[in-house]
Amino acid sequence: MDTPSGTIRALLLAQERGTPMKRVPEAQAVEGRGFVGDRHGKKKPNGKRQLLLLDASSSEALRLSVGELKENVVLSGVPLESLPAGQRLALGGEVVVELTEPCVPCSKLERLRPGLLKESWGQRGQLARVLRGGTVREGDEVRLLDVNPDAPRPIRPKLP
User: Fold this and answer.
1) C-beta of residue 145 within 8 angstroms of C-beta of residue 89
2) Exposed e or buried b for every residue in 117-143, given b needs 16+ CB within 10 A?
3) What is the distance between the alpha carbons of residues 46 and 160, in angstroms, rounded to a whole number?
4) Cα–Cα distance between 44 and 30 in angstroms, integer?
5) Residues 6+ apart with CB under 8 A from 36
6) Do 71 and 17 touch, CB atoms closer than 8 A?
7) Per-residue pLDDT averaged across 105-133, rounded?
8) Are 133 and 95 in contact (CB under 8 A)?
9) Per the record, which residues fall in region Disordered (predicted)?
10) How remote is the C-alpha of 137 from its chain's centroid?
11) What is the DSSP string of 31-53?
12) Do the beta carbons of residue 133 and residue 126 sit within 8 Å?
C-alpha cells in the first residue's frame, strides 16, 4: 500500500509576535524548537506549538492569503485535518515533525473578517513539534510516517 504523500507549497516565518508572516524559499528546522528565525523557535524548548501546518485548501476555502492564518508550513496532498495527534511526517529528506493537536481558532481572526472565527473551525491546521531538524524547502515532498502510540490525545474543543 502506498503511503500518502504531498508537497510543501509555502514556508513562512514571523520574527516577533504580531508581525506579518514572511514567505521564505527554505527554512532550517531545529529539533525541539521549530524554525530558526520564527517567533515560536524562541520559546521554551519542546513545546507543542513549534510549527503550524496548514492544508492549502483551508486558506483557499476561507479566501485568505498565504500567511494570514499565521501558518509556518502550507501543504497540499496530505489529509492534514483528519490526522491524529502523534502522526509523524517527513518534510523533505531531513526534517521529521509530530502533530501535537489541532490549532484552535482564536478571536484575533475576527480582525481579518467578521465571522472568520466560526468559519475557520476545523480548518485552522495542526500544531507540530520538530523531532529531527534539518533544511526544508518549498516544493519538498511530505510523507506520512508512523503514529506515536504514546502521544497525548487532545480533547477537541467545541465550537463557540
Assistant:
1) yes
2) beebeebbbbbbbbbebbebebebebb
3) 29
4) 13
5) 27, 28, 29, 30
6) no
7) 84
8) yes
9) 13-50
10) 15
11) TTTEETTSGGGGSSTT-S-SEEE
12) no
Which DSSP category does 159 fall into? Answer: P
Convert the pLDDT of each residue in 22-79 to its tens digit: 999 999 999 999 999 998 776 677 778 899 999 998 888 888 889 888 899 999 999 9
Sheet bearing 34-35, strands edge to edge? 34-35, 26-30, 134-137
By C-alpha distance, which of 153, 100, 150 is closest to 125?
Answer: 100
Q: By three-state DSSP, how is residue 122 classified?
A: coil
- The CA distance from 135 to 107, in Å, is 33
What tens digit of pLDDT does each residue of 92-113 get?
A: 999 999 999 988 777 777 787 8
The residues spanned by each domain of the chain are: 5-147
What is the model's pLDDT at position 25? 98
The CATH homologous superfamily for domain 5-147 is: PK beta-barrel domain-like (2.40.33.20)
The candidate with the shortest Cα–Cα distance to 67, out of 142, 9, 144, is 9
